[in-house]
Amino acid sequence: MPVEVLSRTQTTNDEGRAVEELVVNVGPSHPSTHGVGRVVVHLDGDIVTHADMMVGYLHRGIEKMVENRTYLQVVPLTDRLDYVGSMYANWAYCRAVERLAGIRVPERAEYLRVIVCELQRIASHMMGLGASSADTGAFSAFVYAFDERERVVELFEDLCGARLTYNYVRPGGVSFDAPEGWTERVLEFTAKHRKAMAEFDDLFFGNVIARGRLKGVGVLSAEDAVAWGASGPTARGSGVNWDLRKHDPYSVYPRMDFDVPVGDRGDAYDRGRVRLFECIESCRIIEQAISQMPGGHVRPEGLARLIAPKPGDAYDHIESARGSLGVYLVSDGTPRPYRMHVRSPAFCNLALLPKLAVGHTLSDLVVVLGSLDPVFGEVDR
Amino acid sequence: MNLEQLRDRLAELSPRLYPLFSLEFGDAVIGVERDQLHDAALELRELGFDRLGMVTAVDYVDWMVLVYRLQSRSMSTALFVKCQLKRDDLVAPSLVDVWPAALWQEREVYDLFGVDFEGHPDLRRIMLPEEFEGHPLRKDYDNPRVIKRPDYI
What interhelical angle do A139-160 and A107-135 show, nearest 10? Predict the structure, then answer.
């Protein structure tokens, strides 16, 4: 992690002792595997007294680029928002388009979307937990987590040919039906994954060093989580029971039986464990979805390639691995969106970092950043 | 709570905001004048809209519209608040003191649209560098480095 001292100021404190305030720059070249963000921290000794999070290093102007493309051409751009959870941005965007243009989605496609998004949740949480464990020095847990992620990525490769930017969910349905034997391989994976998660729980959250690093660090109260617009595991780790799959159900989620894991202390440890238990709940959802999945088409027949919705605006959102991911679309009646805005959960959660880091040591700043699990592609857009 | 119930509740608890209520694409929307935006926000928070989900703007060339999406966990419903601004007077009250969630999102609108939020504690660019000129999400933003995609359709 590149750390550089920007300034030193010597003052005397109330007791008449000389103290020194250090201003330190952390980043932006990939501070601890979480992406391209930069934090300027003011330190008193080793304690953070003020932090300023700087984002925008990955700003590609996707919201501007969208205004120059047709509705279908936008789907690959949404892949590049949250690049460890591409399926979510695909889906949120397609839901907004379907709402705007009044497209009905075949039931089989809805089930495939639920299955891939729950697999994506596992892959994304494994990435987040893996990075968190590497931050706290638990490198073996990092390797185990990435092994699980690799299994999911292989399943996605079989399904749509891509390992990172899937471009799988399209307006009206999905791009391909599941190949033969794919659902069986998914079920094999979920059976193995439950065991792997029990092992990971022991290996990482049972480790006395990891517990020492995570417990009581970056405590977020439930009131603050709501007021600051936090969502996903960041809010649920603080005891805010808010999951769009349950509380604003969309797609076929009302037919699924699953629990929403909620923490109570709101520290990095609870946020991490919420992610771990969500992976197990995702396995439950995937198994139910596969057993309920009907046959039929995965795209509506006769859907035009050029979508030109009538003028107006629509918003739709889904529960991504990071929280409520919403897409706001404005149409002026032409085949190109007039405006698209992505309500990014990582952006809203990351706004909490300066607040949570104060009072902790510089090394805990990295733990707090990891526990918010930001993906900078989505933060900067 | 469905949209009719929300409308009734608004009529009952907040008769001042009720006439502004409308429906667009299945979403409940209220339009608020700029001078009343801050008071309306406080009133809506009292009504139970405890979360500010989204802040953004849309440039309609003749005017600019600020779009806020509020969520209420107790009523499990959402509400859009829209506020029209004149293009030559892009100033709006900041809602950071009502919902801290606006802190970064208003900075983003300021950065990309050039809307000035009065009372914002830390109004700086967030996505683009400080020395950047112009506000790229405006429709009239002109930069020779922006290449228009050719019309294949």
Answer: 160
